[in-house]
Amino acid sequence: MRVVVVGAGIAGASAAFHLTELGVEVFLIDNNAPGRATLAGAGIVCPWLSHTQDPRYETLALAAVRYYPKLAKELAASGENDVDYDLVGGLVVGHSAKELDPVVRRLQKYLQLGIEEVGKVRLLRVGEPRELFPYLDPELAGVYLTGAARVSGESFRIGLLNAARKAGARQLSGTAALRQSGNAVIGVEVAEEFIAADAVIVAAGAWSAELLRALNLQLAVEPQRGQIVHLKVAEANTEALPVIVPVLSDYYMLGFRNSRILMGATRESGSGFDFRPTAGGVAKVLEEGLQIAPGLKSATLEEVRVGFRPMSGDGLPLFGSLASTAGLVVATGLGRYGLTLGPYVGLLAAQLVVGQTPSSDCSCFRPDRQI
Ligand SMILES: Cc1cc2nc3c(=O)[nH]c(=O)nc-3n(C[C@H](O)[C@H](O)[C@H](O)COP(=O)(O)OP(=O)(O)OC[C@H]3O[C@@H](n4cnc5c(N)ncnc54)[C@H](O)[C@@H]3O)c2cc1C
After folding, report:
1. Of 36, 247, 306, best ligand 1 pocket probe by most atoms within 8 Å of the beta carbon
2. Domains present along the chain, CATH in parentheses
3. Which of 78, 191, 255, 305 could disulfide-link to 174, CB 3.0 to 4.6 Å?
């Protein structure tokens, strides 16, 4: 069986990797579009405190979180040692125990349901969060949980791509277009070449609607621009810092290797593919972030990344086959939580394409559902 995957973000890279494990001949095509979300994404993996509390999302996210460490270990075992995924814990900050009480209750609800991945939960008195994240305002209280992870999406994506290539997947650069015969997709065209396939997985993130539009198919996904600031602090072990999870504020921070701290992010719906950091976007991120962490005021402003979240009309993934078209599987719409969901959704896409029953029931995410 031959499968073409269009898009080598975290979802497509994972689909390609898992297809090789299922013994499929794989072509993976990517055009390195400016604003690919996986490069810009922050990397918070903490669905217990997501903005979205839709039970369909929560079920999928829990399975995705359970799968992450297993996949990270598998990549390490295959020699991918630069994959940067770690269970660093998370902190929600606020001004008083009263303000933080709903957060504690929400986490306890998951624990009562037996979801142990939330980890240990502890209420921190004013001043204590700063002991864990030294740049914070000393007047902040907090809730600490051990079950939050953070990932460098780009390192995970590269690990998956390398492992897929080692297992025989072929990676091509260029912009792919779907080719149809009757009501079936029969392959893709890229760089004036036609690659015939038994099935095509569209994992082209925010660009997925464009691909399907050429076949007169509608897909309810749009780009939502996110601007995220990368700061550098003087010599510090930033990679072990807990994630400052956005719950009471919409803004967050997380540390990575090489003294880097990410502060994010804007959520600009209706942005189109306008790939520009803007003065207003960066100002807002810094204003909100520095209010929580004034200790970062003297950090070096290293970089601003811009990415397009693939947002579906109802905020839930767009996943599965289309009733109207054979040979096509869509794996996108991962929105704000694509670095959390992407590796697992890639596994599900691979399973679906080869005719296996996916490890999670995804029928509620059908890409042609009414939105
Ligand atoms: C600022 C920001 C912060 C975020 N923070 C988090 C977070 O903390 N936690 C979390 O879980 N998620 C987060 N996300 C969301 C997450 O980054 C995305 O949902 C996820 O990366 C989407 O992955 P993807 O593979 O679907 O898309 P992408 O990574 O965008 O990949 C799509 C790929 O398809 C390629 N492509 C498009 N069209 C074609 C074509 N015709 N032919 C060939 N190639 C094509 C593009 O070049 C691109 O490489 C964040 C996103 C942003 C922007």
Report:
1. 36
2. 2-43+154-220+314-365 (3.50.50.60), 87-148+223-312 (3.30.9.10)
3. 191
